[in-house]
Structure prediction request, 911 residues.
Amino acid sequence: MPTKQNLLDNYLSNIDIIGEGLPVWFNARRSDAAASLNLHGLPTAKQEQYLHSDIARLVEGEWEQYFVPRRHPAPAPLLPDAEASRVELMNGRAAKEGLRVSEEGAVYGSLRAAACSAEYSPMVEKWLDSVADMGDAPTALTRMFVQDGAFIYLPAGVEMTSPILIDNFYHADTEAEMCFAQALIVADEGARGEVIVTHRSEGEGRIMVGFTREAVIGSKADIRFTELYDLQSNCSIVNNNYIKQMGESHCSTMCCKTGDGYVRAAYNSALTEREAISDVWALYLCGGEEHCDLNLAVRHLAPDCRSYSLVKGAAADMSVGSFAGMVYVAQDAQRTDAQQQSRNLLLSDTARIYAQPQLEIYADDVKCTHGATVGQLDDEAIYYMRQRGLSERQARRLQIEGFAYDVVQHCGCENMCRHISELTAAKLERM
Amino acid sequence: MEERDQIIADLGNEYKYGFTTDIETETIPRGLNEEVVRLISQKKGEPEWLTAYRLKAYRHWLTMTMPTWAHLDIPEIDYQDIIYYAAPRTKPKLNSMDEVDPELRRTFDKLGIPLEEQMALSGVAVDAVMDSVSVKTTFKEVLAEKGIIFCSISEAVRDYPELVRKYLGSVVPYADNFFTALNAAVFSDGSFCYIPKGVRCPMELSTYFRINAAGTGQFERTLIVADEGSYVSYLEGCTAPQRDENQLHAAVVEIVVLKDAEVKYSTVQNWYPGDKEGKGGIYNFVTKRGICKGDNARLSWTQVETGSAITWKYPSCILAGDNSVAEFYSVAMTNNFQQADTGTKMIHIGRNTRSRIVSKGISAGRSQNSYRGLVRVAKGAENARNYSQCDSLLIGDRCGAHTFPYMDVQNPSAVVEHEATTSKISEEQLFYCNQRGLATEDAVGLIVNGYAKEVLSKLPMEFAVEAQKLLAISLEGSVG
Prediction:
């Protein structure tokens, strides 16, 4: 039986359990998503957007899905020393129920709780699924099965002094498990804050994660995202991020793939009003037979917006690194300033790198540049370091670390920055 | 601003070469089936293997669908409503210019093609294709002395069957895509060129294609083979008369470059782009590909694309030989409702191969102009080097400029770079030119020519002049 049908059948036969305890509107949208998935089907490598990630093959086979919360051994907390407001998710379900309010006034907690609460339900109903593209099959798939996730609300003018951490932990003992989660971040006018999203995994079983994150950034708000993929090799993630930015808002995203798991991540930003600014820094490090596919799309829909993106990646052994970027400039988006850079290192004969920096421009008064390079380490620099007593291996590592630093330095939280640096070093050791 | 509006209003940029010549043409019924394929083959007196090849291609074509991935909005094409073959009825067996139909000669004169003495003076041998059958080939004798074969493909099939059979479809197999299959099934004419070992072609070879009879698509097939150590520069230029009906053009060009040989292929394409409302115009769906088969082979594509309503064209290079070098220089200019999706493919297979891509897109009016290119470095392509640069220039706020580069690198010693910028003509530049007494229109022409200079300078002299004029003409009516 085709995978798509399997999933739809599973959805239909469990429809009551999946939606239990959630508002009617929340569940009504599932069936829309199911219809969309049915219509579009799971993407194969034949689809332009999924050229290098065969999602249909990824979700093929027998998977377990649990629609009731289960007990798992609690993971060691991430960044125990860091002062942070935490939302912990275990296989897509919030570990703690309910919503909390930080000192500064930010609301955070389980998406389920927010959707059910009298106070925040209207907000969730308004914004959830408003930014995401249900025409994208993995997004629709996630929406179909999602039962929980994270919710963050920064009311107008709130300025966070410490980050909010969405800590996703995935665990499967022996069987293959599929799990889904969604996150909604709403920042009202002038709010400032940092959101860290991490993905970690553990256990012997295979895991496939569908994750969708939506963010609505109000005018003059300034939000910083840091996302870390630190997954084991038996864990795959398909992560779709959608960001909608209002006038004069600023949103920066830094993401890092240091784990060994399969990552397909898409970052879509829509600059819908004047003078919005979007920055994206991304880093992927691939060794072994890993696969990392990063998709970046910035849509300039209003005049005077600015976007910058830098994607750096290194592929060693038999890994595949892929980057596709798209800058779209609508007809009215005059005086757009967009920059897109992709720098890739190909470190072995059997690794493969794809790069696709694309521009689609319908306005004439714009400054758009993009560049992509694929190359290797600088022999001269290595020679220089070796002359100064470093081993070949050390010299190579040092150079890759320097290469990665351009991205890693953009992490706002000091503790997180250190953590990522450590993971990067450990990853390079394995590569 | 007022002045600009005035300029827009004033410019009735009608297609300069929009006239048709009344020559009786022999056509076959509309539509395509096995009978038509056989008929074309029979009319051309082709050997059995070629008929079989055409039929195989036709059968394969039936299983294919038109590609839709390009950033183009192509109206549905009724392939059964096209006449697949048209030949001037007077049998073109001519030895001198005097025997050429006066009507036909007048057409060439109107186009400003000096087919007679001027031709000799400019040192260009022309194989003029007038609706599918070669009418006149000049300088054949001069070329024959050097052993160079330059003739229509039908003559080549007759006179040099073993050469044609060896190379036809070797670079662009019929199953490559929808249009190559169609072309392989119904190609009516085109040029064949063979440069023997160690020969430097003493003159630039040139073919003027001209679509004439209404409702007939032209399906040329060009095959160029440069044997070891040889050199040739090949020019192709096009103009077409004004037609309301869309005309389909699906050509295939194949180039084989053997060891130490070099081929320069230059095109100026100026087919009827449709009127200002986007009505009519040629559909140009061309597959061009060359292979650097031997070591140290060099292949260079230079194209200036200003015409056609829709262009779908990706001149490509396969760098199979070690140390081979490929270049692609392109200026693609779209105005009014024109659409272009063009670029190149560089496939690095051999060791120490180098490729360079310079693409300049100019879009004006309501046109859409896309660059689409692929650079692939295969596993064994040690020390491959690629540099791509694609710039876009936007004139007006209703047009689009898009860039879709693809990189696929499998060898760690490869260095692949891609750079792209998008910009518009700055007010300052225009102001500067205006101050010095240039009309805005002329100023734009000047700036655009400067912008495209890097590519134009790669064209042979006489072509470069024509191309510069073309750019300025195509730009008319776009300022504002």
Observations:
- The longest strand of chain A covers residues 177-187.
- Residues 145 and 195 of chain A are 25 Å apart (CA to CA).
- The mean pLDDT of chain A is 92.
- The two ends of chain A are 38 Å apart (CA to CA).
